[in-house]
Structures are given as structure tokens and as C-alpha cells.
Amino acid sequence: MREFFVTVDLVVLTIRESRLHVLLVERRYPPFEGEWALPGGYVLPEEDLTTAAYRELVEETAIGTGVHLEQLATYGAPERDPRGRTVTVAFLALVPQVGAPVAGTDASDAAWVPVADLEAGEMRLAFDHDDILADGIERARAKLEYSPLAAAFCPPEFTVAQLRGIYEAVWGHPLDPRNFHRKVTGSAGFLEPTGRTSTVDGGRPAQLYTRGALDTLSPPITRASG
After folding, report:
1. Cα R_g (the chain), whole angstroms
2. What percentage of the chain reaches a pLDDT higher than 90?
3. pLDDT at position 226, please?
4. Which of 24, 40, 103, 119 is close enough to 36 for a disulfide, judged by CB 3.0 to 4.6 Å?
5. Which CATH class is domain 147-211?
6. Which residues, given as ranges, of the chain have pLDDT below 50?
7. In this structure, are strands 19-27 and 107-114 parallel, antiparallel, or unpaired?
8. 58 and 105 Cβ atoms separated by less than 8 Å
9. Could you say which of 3.40.718.10, 3.90.79.10, 3.90.930.12, 3.40.50.720 is the CATH number of the domain covering 4-144?
10. Do 4-144 and 147-211 share a fold?
11. What is the mean pLDDT of the chain?
12. Whether the model pTM is above 0.85
């Protein structure tokens, strides 16, 4: 029987300079030495999948706290890894704005790369990571329509304008400010007012909110209508 391996790979997304970015690592060792890939690695015998994903996130990027992590999909094409039959379980991770990543011992470099550059074909990733990345991006974009997931990109307290900026960065197009404000503040349980204000967006002070306990937005905030 042919031996096979189990790995985890991570689609780690954040917002930088009002654009959606993904975390990539430059591979230090073969196969695909010197090429860029999603962070990830082998699952250890004593680990469950989520534990392995968190460990790889810390080892390769020094990011480990304040992360929304969810299982994305499983990828098992027979020839996806030239080292042998490998099944990978991909995870989607969303993080608030952070500094420059730090590459782990098995990576030469790590960087936040604009998603738009990858979608334009300016860089190809190792293994089948282009497909995994596309699935992760679509998962994030879709879930913003019907869940409060956008708040995972935000600091603990944020304004409606900051939240709208997250939607615009992930979806890649502007939204009507008044329509968006009405929708998110009208969805009971989506946002909880803190009673404090901020001038971070310029102009007059804006109300600060935290994420509420709502799980599903009804009606959804659709990409087409904003």
C-alpha cells in the first residue's frame, strides 16, 4: 500500500492599506524551492487538524492570537505533491491588521501580498495553492453576505465606516455609505454600541461598536446591492 501523508494549509487574509491581502511564504526547501506558497505543513501524530493549523500559523508567521480560524476544504489529487500521496486540509484564517510577518525555520521569507495581484495572474503559487487560495477568498467573500465575519478583520472597537471599508476591500468595490449604515445598524445583534466615539475616520466623532452575538444576517448584505 502506498504511503500517504496529511498536511494542513492556511489561507490567511487581512486588510492592509484598504486592500485584501493574503499571507504567503517563500519555500526554503524542495519541492518548489524559492517559490511562494500558502503557509502549512505536516500534521503530527498526536495532533488534531485544528491544533496543527494553529501550530503552523505560529511557526511560519509568528501569528497565533486574535485569529478567526475555520476549516475550508480537503484537497487530495493524487499528484498534488511530488514527494508522495498527500491529502491536505485547508483552513481559512482572518486576522485584524498586523505588522510584517516573520518567516519560520522552513521558509526563506514571508509577506503579505495583495489578493488582486494574484487574481490578475502576477504570481503563481506552489502545489495546488492557487486553487486553495481561490476557494478561501470566495468563502470569505460569500460569508460576508450572510454572517458578521467582517468584524474578524476589525480591532475590538470600530466604527461603521471602518466596517464598511472591510466589506469594500474584500469585495473589491465601493458601497453606498448610508445604505450600508442602515443595514448593519438595523440588523439586531450584529453590532453593539460601546457608548464611546472616535474621530479615526475624520470629521465629526463616530459611534464605536463591538461585534454582537448575531450569527446570521437576515436579510443578507449582498455584494450586488451593498
Report:
1. 19
2. 79
3. 52
4. 24
5. mainly alpha
6. none
7. antiparallel
8. no
9. 3.90.79.10
10. no
11. 92
12. yes
